[in-house]
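Handout, tutorial session.
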Amino acid sequence: MKRYHTRVMRGLLGYFGRSARETLSHIGGIVLLGWRTAGAAAHLRAPNLPLVWKVVLLQVRFSGLQAVPLVAGISLVLGAATIFQAFDLLGHLADNYIGGLLFGVVVSELGPLTAAVVLIARSGTAMATELGSMKLNGEIEALQSFCVSPTAFVVFPRVLGAVLALGGLIVVFDLLGLVGGFGVAMLVMDLSFPVVQERVLTAMSNGALAGSVLKAGLFGSAIALICCHYGLSLRRSPTELPKAVTQAVVWALVSVFLLDGLVMVAGYLI
């Protein structure tokens, strides 16, 4: 029995050790990919910019424009539900907090997080699958053989496109989330539009707006780098692709929530 427990403990320690080593290896790979991408972007030459910008626009179209209907529907529902639940719990006391709820909850927190989750679900999976297929088909090696940098022409346009698309989706979510919240406030709380508008503007702050911009940059770049890393980390087995896509989605979600927590803490400390 003692030997059995010893083998079990060794097995558990070995499993956690391998998992920790693999996790640290992927974190190092993502950081290195980000460093190389920034360096490659800094050394892009003017004749190459139209090609890079074309890929960026395609990424913005797929990740941003085509996701607008989904984000719009979610934002209307969440904006309305936030104010309705506040009224249901607080009664008419919610009138005094409507500005803080709409701006502090819907605009500052729900907007960036929800848009990031939509970006991961729609574009992160596609990004990891696309780059994984390119790696398996030898397209990445073909680019390298022609002295074309994959980080400059494959990874960087997707990172920039993800940041721009996420910024646009956050703006759409914020605007329509406010519309949903305004509608419930005027219908259920019997508040006039100027009153709700005044309370939202009073709760608005430059720091919170800057935080939303910062989140768009951090979330978008983290999602794109993580998904590109897992796609490019494939070897020669097609069976690795589903696992890589799953890992990319999981770690992209983890990174988004961790970054959101760090930005929140930094905002309170500054």
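The second record follows below. Compare its token runs with those of the first.
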Amino acid sequence: MARAAGVRLCAFEELDSTNDEAKRLFADGGEAGPLWIVARRQSLGRGRLGRGWISPLGNLHASLVLSGAFPATRAPQLGFVAGVAVLTALRCVTPGGSKLALKWPNDLLLERAKLGGILLEGLALAPGGEGARSCVVVGIGVNCVDAPEGLPYPACALASLGPAAPSAAQVFTALSDAFVETLAQWRGGEGFADIRAQWLAMAAGLGETISVRLARGETREGRFETIDADGRLLIAAKEGIFAMDAGDVLLAHEPPNKARSLDQNL
């Protein structure tokens, strides 16, 4: 399906970072996709806020270069598009798919342990109004055979599910097709309400009391109500409803020292 839709693939044995390779291709030749860049291993994988991403052989390391006539204000929605696509793909190829969930804003979970993550980065924004072309790279990492140890939060790999666990190649094949379908639903932002509904149906901690550690070290605690039309996390606290654009989420029943949920990784 992905190939029929015009999506191309560049595969490498090793890269420093699939996201960085996407940026180089854009800078050197104006690559605007749709193009998947996949590497069997990364030497300098990274995630949100420059955090390191451990990238051993056998895990999935992939980035999708995308461009389109959607305004820059809608580009962040692609993180939720990616989340829905990845979970849809994983549930298709993974035994016990009901154990998989999404954690706001960009974590993939298996039984509440971190399985992977998503990193969204802008490549360039053409000048103009609402119809200006936006170019982004969507980085996706999934722990297929191995998960790092000694982290301040639980992490796991698909291999923990036993012999029927899918390989990185199987996950990627399902992901590339699922992403085509999810992008078609999104329609450059016009269909974000449908994506939002699907994301919420896959969300971990919805309706539970959670804590969110904000960038300045402040922590908010409240009931996870929903995400709004802009993808912001809404929590209900004693003082009222709070909307957050970014932060590290701690789900109920997680030890406090596991709050750095967006590390390893993306």
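Points raised in discussion: The first helix runs from residue 18 to 29.
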